[in-house]
């Protein structure tokens, strides 16, 4: 805790020395660090002000742990805060390596220029003279007085990282799954147990490592158990915690149903939402989000659960999945030995592949597994299937698996590659439907025959739940075509079942019987 009042201004060298020895005074006093904020009254739209943490930022500092996960509303200033924290740590502690991972190069350059480098270059002249730069590159500041550094990049995995921020990790997981995998396998393990890692992001839909880590961290928080160094501490910051998110309600129409929504949030969160706050939410939804409430839940969540909530409006299979749960067809569905397992594939254009695993038992189509990965060769999926040790039936591939791909020495289709890898497996091509909505309707009609193992198919069910129509942002209505996102491969693979499955001539799990010649005795 801070020993010195944050508003204290030192008047002599001794007082200054005491203040500089207090990290919280350095961060919170506004005497050392400056930032740029938006100011629409100025020509360039930016104003330089002393940095003073807001209420949400101070709460985060008080709760800072070794591993921290921040689920938040937009523009609460956490990247700015942590940039200042890391810069301060590097300036005042020797031989430290501080890093920030951004979701793309443009974001990395902006964070480094406008947050890290700007804060350093606007330190008091006397302090900057005592803490000069040894290296000043486009991504890193290395300090001459203590050999500590801070850098911003799109990936980091070499050496020890004493302080690490992963900014907009939800976006990384959705748009750059290979980069997310590198974060998990390379960047986070580089942070020692006594180091500090922070993941911060708005929600980017269900699925992906950020969603999974958030759900797990919140579940641990709800148990109240003591955390160990590797546990992620859950931090959530709602839009209504930002005092700037309010406006004059004059002319803003708020319906009774919308007031009911705000009343529920008040009850759930033990807070009060003023008319000015309610007006801001409605105006932001209608203007910035084209009337899309789901985008507001994602970008400006009121609760942590709402952040990952998906509206059922526009969802293709919401009714069918709801009926499946209600009738107990999403439950524990075990593998039945000696019954062939059939697979249904989608080989995505985004280098993603999804595979559903199904057994036909009686009149039931039992889905007992789901495999999905990105940027992996076909051999990877073959090995994943073989690990299961099942008796394989037919592997159903999408129509574009016949398209030729140019390799180094030859042209070959996905079907040919798979068949060469496993000559004894049976592959078939599912015919293309000219209108995808016909295939979707056919899939809906097949749901009543389907059972799903809730655990083994969890990700696949999530893909089906979130598969929806594309929204026309300009008109605020749904288009008649599906939205192509991280859910497409899983939903398209399931559609191959509806379009391509036909009952085998031989009952599942049995072999054709041979006619026996009449014996001499019978004759």
UniProtKB/TrEMBL annotation:
Q: Where is this region: Disordered?
A: 479-523
Ranges of biased composition (kind: Basic residues): 512-523
- Which InterPro entries does the UniProt entry name for this protein? P-loop_NTPase (IPR027417)
Domain of life from the UniProt record: Bacteria
Q: Which Gene3D superfamilies match?
A: P-loop containing nucleotide triphosphate hydrolases
What's the protein name? Terminase
List the source organism: Sphingobium yanoikuyae (Sphingomonas yanoikuyae)
